Structures are given as C-alpha cells and as structure tokens.
Amino acid sequence: MANTGKKIIWTLLLLLLLGGGGFCYFKFFWVFSDGTKTGELNSLTYTGYIFKTYEGEMILTGYGNKNSSGTVQSKNFKFSVADKEIAEQITQMTGMRITVHYKEYKGTLPWRGYEKSIVDSVTIDDAHPAVSPSQEEPLFL
To answer: Is the dihedral of CA 60, 63, 68, 70 positive or negative?
Structure first.
C-alpha cells in the first residue's frame, strides 16, 4: 500500500513538472507572432539595473481610421533588442524611417528585455524616407 502511494506521488510530481515546463516554454520561448513594422525610429536606450538591455521605440504612421477618413494617425511600437550588433545598427538610424523584423513572445525575460517584441534585424526603408520639418515643402507659395 505504501508503494502505491509513492507511485501516485511521483506520478503527480512528474505531471506537475511537465506541466510547469510546458507552461514556461509557451510563455517565454514559443514565438507567438513574427513580422515586420515600418516607422520612424524615435529612441533606443541601454537600460537596466542587473540585466542591461536595449529598449527602443518607433513611431508608426498611417492614414485614416474607421470614423474619419483622411486623418493622420500614429502609434508607438515599443521593442527590445537582444543582440548588441543590431542595437548598434539601430542607434545609427535614429530619426530615419526603418523596417524592423521582430518576434513577439507572450512573456518577458529580464535578460531579453522589458518588452514582449524582440527585434532581430533592421533595414532602412529607402522607398519612403522620413521627412524632417526642414525638408517639407512650404504650404503657401
């Protein structure tokens, strides 16, 4: 009888460990979404108390919405960068219109960054360069 109780306890412990391992895998290591975003790079900082990570922000612009057509809208995209070389590339592109490829996870890990979206590559968007206020055409001639 004591042998059966030990088997039940070990079986429950094994199921609990497998369940916890599966939860951790899907929460922190399974890629939930994978894609690209294009916008103007606003900032990239190197921050953290124990684990120093690169944290960035892009401004994504678009035209129109459901309620009023012809309006300009913007949205901020916050991301982390795990690779130092990619962070250095992004730092040189501050203020430019860029396209980033990212992977989104359901949870964050302290050594990977504060954000769920992790950028793994970056390119300059040559088709639509960012326009600074000094480059805009005058409204009145």
So the answer is: positive
Residues 120, 60 contacting (CB under 8 angstroms): no
Number of Cβ atoms within 10 Å of the Cβ of 100: 25
pLDDT digits (tens, 9 = 90+) for 88-130: 999 888 878 899 999 999 999 998 989 999 999 999 877 655 5
Burial class (CB in 10 A: 0-12, 13-18, 19+), 118: buried
Residue with tokens 């916890």: 20
Beta strands 97-104 and 117-124 are antiparallel
Distance (Å, whole) CA 38 – CA 109:
25
**Model confidence, pTM:** 0.73
| Spatial distance between the Cα atoms of 128 and 112, rounded to a whole number of angstroms | 31
Architecture of the domain delimited by 31-135: Beta Barrel (2.40)
**Exposed, middle or buried by CB within 10 Å (0-12, 13-18, 19+), for 53?**
buried
